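Below: protein 1.
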Amino acid sequence: MSRVETLTAEALGPDPLGAFSRWLSEATARSGMTFPNAACLSTLRDGSWPDGRIVLLKGVDSRGFVFFTNYRSAKGRSLIENPKAALTFYWDELGRQVRVRGHASEVDALESDAYFRTRPRGSQVGAWASRQSDVLAAREVLEERSREIDERYAGREVPRPPHWGGFVLRPEEIEFWQGRDDRLHDRILYRRTDSAGGGTGAAVWTTERLSP
């Protein structure tokens, strides 16, 4: 990593969401990863253990980071009960990491409908068949449900289940991490200063350099 240039807030620019989009584009082109949009989503329900799992980012815009799931799943219930959550992206080949902390909320039904229509039919059927995170008596039970759903919608479009849709994580903090030699890594933290946890106006950010 000796040839890696020093990471600065000036190089990243004033908009961390734009900087993230550029890093994701570079990871897509250069990392060799099958899913460069994969991230660890961390949640915490009251009185429970912290929980982490991999999700696939499906969009990033001025609102934040968009992903989709079953609202009745463990992560869906966690986000509805406690909307504070974190996403962690890591691209080993590029020596880069991005950590995001913020508040999650459901996207509107039209957005969820539009994305659901782009999914393969098998995935659409699976969204109905799987009672995600519930105990499953046997694999055969799941496969039988899948067959029943497939037959129910034979020859027609599979509608989006009402318990399935998107979340958007509105960031309050975004940290860019660039690996450097001798563990002298670069860490640039963006912290949102406009109406933390709410508001619809343009985001205002401050930046700080953190020790590695």
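Below: protein 2.
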Amino acid sequence: MDRPARVALLVGSLRQDSFNRRLAHVLVGLAPQNMTFDEVPFRDLPLYDQDLETDAPPAPWQQFRDRVRPADALLFVTPEYNRSVPGGLKNALDVGSRPAGRSVWRGKPGAVVSGSTGGIGGFGANHALRQSLVYLDVPTLPQPEAYIGNIGNIIGADGTLTRDDTRTFLTKFMAAFGAFIDRNRA
């Protein structure tokens, strides 16, 4: 396609100044020219409840779905909570996957980056999210995998990376994601 890919950016942490939000902004800055980004918030999504899935679902659900639907691709940047994804992100996945047969996720190429203050870089969250994305029919960038450990020492309070090797890795990651989008977007 001639136009840049529209990428919906979903940050698993709800905190405005979270390390993962800073990481997401770094990733956007390192992205190749064939990508544009829209950070899609989900802080105010009511919990998914099928009883509310009527002809007039809750307005925040519809607004969220309408924001994700036109995206060509998906970038998830998430911390790890209790060896899995934060509840808000899981709820966003559920809201976007309904009503049955009308998922906003289906077929969109995606990538997952996880970051934590610990040494294993959110490995559990990364893989839990990938498991859900398989079911949601989101072809997900297989390599390189991105687990950013000790994130508090890698991204400064002003949002800049403090390590050149991390910048090099993330630049390669975003280039690989851009190429993956080009190969997989509808």
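The chain has a mean pLDDT of 96.
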